[in-house]
Amino acid sequence: MSRTRRRQDPRVPAVLLIPAALGVAILVLPMVGLVLRAPWGGLPSILTSDEVLTALRLSLVTATVSTGVALVCGVPVAWLLARTRLPGRSVLRGLVTVPLVLPPVVGGVALLMVFGRRGLVGGWLHDTFGISLPFTTEAVVLAQVFVAMPFLIVAVEGALRTADRRYEDVAATLGATSWTTFRRVTLPGVAPGVLAGAVLCWARALGEFGATVTFAGSFPGTTRTLPLEAYVAINAGDTEVAIVLSLLMIAVSVTILVGLRDRWIGTS
Amino acid sequence: MSRTRRRQDPRVPAVLLIPAALGVAILVLPMVGLVLRAPWGGLPSILTSDEVLTALRLSLVTATVSTGVALVCGVPVAWLLARTRLPGRSVLRGLVTVPLVLPPVVGGVALLMVFGRRGLVGGWLHDTFGISLPFTTEAVVLAQVFVAMPFLIVAVEGALRTADRRYEDVAATLGATSWTTFRRVTLPGVAPGVLAGAVLCWARALGEFGATVTFAGSFPGTTRTLPLEAYVAINAGDTEVAIVLSLLMIAVSVTILVGLRDRWIGTS
Amino acid sequence: MSLDADLALTRGDLALRIGLAVGPGEVVALLGPNGAGKSTTLQLLAGTLVPDGGRVELDGVTLDDAAAGVHVRPRERRVGMVVQDYLLFPRMSVLENVAFGLRSRGLPRDRARAEARGWLARMGLEGYERRRPAELSGGQAQRVALARALIVEPRLLLLDEPLAALDAGTRPVVRAELRRHLAGYGGCTLVVTHDPLEAMVLGDRVVVLERGRVVQQGPPAEVARRPRTDYVARLVGLNLLTGTASGRTAELPTGAVVALAHDATGPVHIAFPPVAVTLSLRRPEGSARNAWPLVIADLEAHGDLVRVTADGAVPVLADVTPLAVADLGLEPGGQVWASVKASEISVYPA
Amino acid sequence: MSLDADLALTRGDLALRIGLAVGPGEVVALLGPNGAGKSTTLQLLAGTLVPDGGRVELDGVTLDDAAAGVHVRPRERRVGMVVQDYLLFPRMSVLENVAFGLRSRGLPRDRARAEARGWLARMGLEGYERRRPAELSGGQAQRVALARALIVEPRLLLLDEPLAALDAGTRPVVRAELRRHLAGYGGCTLVVTHDPLEAMVLGDRVVVLERGRVVQQGPPAEVARRPRTDYVARLVGLNLLTGTASGRTAELPTGAVVALAHDATGPVHIAFPPVAVTLSLRRPEGSARNAWPLVIADLEAHGDLVRVTADGAVPVLADVTPLAVADLGLEPGGQVWASVKASEISVYPA
Amino acid sequence: GDDGDDAAAPSGVASGPGDDAPGGTVTVLAAASLTESFETLADQLGDDHPDLEIVYSFGPSSGLVEQLLAGAPADVLATADTTTMDDAVAGGVVDSAPEIFARNTLALAVPAGNPAGVTGLADLANPDLRIAICEPQVPCGSSAQRLLDAAGVTAAPDTLTTDVKEAASLVALGEADAALIYLTDAAAVGDAVETIDVPEANTVVNEYPVAVLADAPNPEGAQALLDAITGEPGRSILDAAGFLPAQ
Ligand SMILES: Nc1ncnc2c1ncn2[C@@H]1O[C@H](COP(=O)(O)OP(=O)(O)OP(=O)(O)O)[C@@H](O)[C@H]1O
Ligand SMILES: Nc1ncnc2c1ncn2[C@@H]1O[C@H](COP(=O)(O)OP(=O)(O)OP(=O)(O)O)[C@@H](O)[C@H]1O
Ligand SMILES: [Mg+2]
Ligand SMILES: [Mg+2]
């Protein structure tokens, strides 16, 4: 296949470059600080310890599962918000962003009050099926979904609003059900937005700490993800270990995100 | 002005409704839990106390300023990522999402190491201009920008990738500088994405806790925002107060977001 | 299958009020100036716009009834549509675009694709199956859009300038293909076009819209012979005047008088072709009983002739040879006499 | 100002290789079948595509030089462009769209708007200033796009089917406006069109592209009279055959022989209009020295005549009256003899 | 002093024009678990020293030390354990000897009504009960470990909380059947939890040190506050909150 060459614009407007440089500095400099502070000598032993590897595996698995759940549940919510006229839609839109403002620990308490053993839903689950969510890996996923799904929803809703709705009309005149239209026309049209949302969601889930620690607890192998491991280190006064763990999370997420996006979006 | 009526689609595909309902339940039920648990009797006195009002004002001001800073710095970064071919662009994109995965407390430590009085940049600022950032309201803003700007960047980049670039080509042939093109063609075209990003960013800044408490401390009036106030309440054994404060944050953010979006996006 | 529509919609400064009936198998060509409401009409019939008033019935089934609040959704209408800007699904291949409608109606993938392949071939697009819409030229995209709409054999086919972007070589081929398809097709068809030839070739009947109203309709030949508005007259290349006749003369609103070949009374339309107009520098003395002094507004070459636009009490278009232009020294602003034989003029009630 | 371009680009299965020179003030009409590369050529000249090879010089300034790696960015080219799908800025009003170019060149807002208002008026769009592009009909949008491109008085004006969506009434008006504008304009203009009349009216010269190459160019009348490809022949409504002449006859590749009125030798094009073709059921015995047995492929009414497409050793198009169709009982699949007088045939070297 | 401090520090400057009574602002970085007691203390101190304004910044002990190491302008540091205070000393931000002003002991907390019928430390070994214990690496966790060791119990925890407050919340919400938390936390949570007497509890104590900082902008005020913390009224306020007196 031949590629169409697009014009390459070497001169970038300075008015954009200056704030962009500032923005990048704000985001990247602190990381430089972490790197400088990291105890490079002790690195290998910390990174290869059993606890860290277990936590890493758990983090990757739960963040990925959470992103999957968020995609399945969140994209339809975004679609509802962008495309239908449910009464109270704008209030719903506001509610959906609530987990963003909720201090994570409060979020965890709120989850306990609903899904805990004595909670609204959890109590019923426990009495009827004997299922108890807190302190399980499922609880980690639930906490991550709670905290991270809003990112996905907001990003996808933004993309849906930017997309041209006339394509959906055309699909409808061709006899497509609203489900087919959604699946084959709407969704591919907002793929970059969904991808962006999924990235946000995954990263946020990977870094999730407050709600997890409160709702799911912190037990090695089942609920102790990397951020919890880092928090333990901080509380134990081991800032250096916390920094190493954070750098590990950063490395993992940057690697995966760079790899993924290059494959999905196309490099060059 | 007359409005063009669009078809109203009353039947929504069930395949979407079920996961959407699940998604909404996950996000909204915990809030219901909080509402049920809140000490409604003591509410007025808590909400009108000086500390709470001070913290509320501080929270609103800092979150808004942070969102402004993030817009000014973040939109150009998103543009760089989506529209140019900087070498190392995909690594930069990865780095930009780092604050998402970084446990906020570690983020605070990292900020201290760079902008603290003995930090890389902070030391220079202090020695040259006598400026010291940590523990000031500016530090709160910096911490919020660090934590919240990535949301804006990722959302805006997604929108830029969805947008049709041919409009920019047309603007260029009409003699527009890349700055004019950006300002008058690109930006209005991705307005919904920018708005979505700003909403995420503002909400995240409003709820920011970990990096703030570490980098800016928790001084009433200057750095103790609502989430910090909630933390203080939890530590004082006042979970109820913390819940009230969280509900206050929720109410504020839902009100503002619903109001804003209705004005910006247009209702119905 | 037949369509019976009575539509009312106010959109910006367009107040659309039209009644439209299309019989089974009938092809109606919808003509009209820009902004007349043609695309709006199609959108209303497709169901992507909701009328303010009136009703739409297809095949006895009510699709819209504003008073009763009935509005059948686009996908349940089985309506095929080609829109002015194609709207090919950007992330599907050409083949998938064409097969989309059949797949949506539940056909297995392979059969849908095979049929789509056939349609692409008929549109002269073999070998383009795997392209993305962004990789097509304008005319290619339009043909894909046409194939996508035709393949689903809808009950109502709505074509908005379906051939506008086709080249001179492809247009007759695709037009013939379209005509063949429409001839063996029992549904109702509405074709919007700006090309009078296309309207004549494809349409069993012509409906002319202006400012949201039907101003003329009938068989193509009838409409072409007896235009009732300036727009139609220009479309078919006739001069059109409106006046009040009594006996063998008609008076125009400007006071000018036109001699007629036959008796007529009351308000009339007066039509004559530009080639019937003779230009001269002095008042002509021949048998032409109509002669009016005019000022030349514009000259434009077309084909072997030059079209002269002249203004005065009786504004006319005249087609003359380049030789005549040179001989008479015609140029914008020049004075000239235009004469038309009464026998060249057709007169019919307004 | 003059344009001198030598372009090479491979894009999908299109291999574009064309040389193009446009003099100061000259208007070149670019014709060609769908997918010939017309829009691609304009995009290359506008700078939104980068050529693989060759160079572009405007007014002595090198805009592209593939060998030297030179590529001037679109905004520094001062090129005006109307694209096939308009691309009006969706969030600006019509007035802002038109004024955009002047504002970008630094004109104060009020002056830019005043001038934009004037252009909209000339395009027949007074009162539409505050509309959004989504609130325009197809033809209205196209006129806005045209005004947006013309207002900046670019050094090079690139118009891609600028009048395709206009109605029959507006098209001559806008075309005349465009012609007037181009006449008083020193820059170079390229107009892509599928309408032969438009090419004749607007173009000082016609360039025909096919499959990425220039296949014919020259003054409009010359191209119309002596088509060199099937596409051009169909465009101007002529039958075109290619053969080898020796003396008063020419032999076609199919073996058929055509009688000529004048001597000729070597490879020749043979052209004659469809109206010059007479159809009969038996071999004609009159003075027509060319008579070929054919099979009717298609009949299509246009205007007052019916166009008959007939296949055989010498495939021809014939225009006959509906009366003749009825008399001869013509229908697809029927056998028929076609005859053409040698004097109606023009022959020129291939 | 230093301009930077003025611009940056909410502590302001010492205002004392030669008075005996200390004045100005005293900035205190204190462990979060001291929130309630220290705020009460500030209120009471205001009566005796009207010129003295006390500003607290509460946070996790380790974070406070980080802040100091990064140059936070403060006068007093009070942490919840000696380890973090040692870090501050090692980092040079504290050059005086820290004083222990309070001690804390663990309590076996159960939800109000004790639904699981917990009777003593031995029940923590019951895998059927939902048990929350602090992570061994953090101060309350190492205390808990020592306590369990002393009692000869091998606990079967369901979660190892990183912060005592989490464990307290879990018990208060009834999600945990029993948890080892500090007495002060149990007291703070209030009616939602009950404590079960554990005889061995007094063998394991956790110490709270306080110190005036080396670069304190207001050393007199700092010393006044330190005196108040270590003496009266600090003693009675801390008592009320469940702290044990320093030895
Ligand atoms: N969304 C809208 N809001 C307001 N006015 C609109 C809107 N869409 C179209 N119009 C106006 O309605 C009128 C009819 O538009 P329509 O697209 O139906 O015209 P049309 O007959 O298809 O013209 P064309 O031949 O140019 O395609 C136009 O004047 C147009 O400006
Ligand atoms: N991005 C692309 N990738 C691959 N092939 C392309 C791409 N864009 C256009 N083409 C192909 O290049 C050829 C020329 O396209 P172009 O748009 O220049 O044609 P055109 O002469 O303008 O035709 P039309 O009259 O239909 O507008 C077509 O065959 C088209 O399919
Ligand atoms: Mg239209
Ligand atoms: Mg084209």
Descriptive account of the structure:
- The complex is a heteropentamer, with 2 copies of chain A (268 residues), 2 copies of chain C (350 residues) and 1 copy of chain E (247 residues).
- Chain A has 268 residues and is mostly helical.
- In chain A, 76% of the residues lie in helices and 0% in strands.
- Chain A has one domain: Orthogonal Bundle (MetI-like fold).
- The longest helix of chain A has 34 residues.
- In chain C, the strands form 4 sheets. Chain C has a 6-stranded mixed beta sheet with strand order 7-8-9-3-10-11, with helices on both faces.
- The longest helix of chain C is centred in the first third of the chain and has 14 residues.
- In chain C, 25% of the residues lie in helices and 37% in strands.
- Chain C folds into 2 domains: 186 residues, P-loop containing nucleotide triphosphate hydrolases (Rossmann fold, 3-Layer(aba) Sandwich); 113 residues, RNA polymerase II/Efflux pump adaptor protein, barrel-sandwich hybrid domain (OB fold (Dihydrolipoamide Acetyltransferase, E2P)), CATH 2.40.50.
- In chain E, strands 1, 2, 3, 4, 5, 6, 7, 8, 9 and 10 form a 10-stranded mixed beta sheet that branches.
- The complex binds adenosine-5'-triphosphate (ATP) (2 copies) and magnesium ion (2 copies).
- One adenosine-5'-triphosphate sits at the interface of chains D and C.
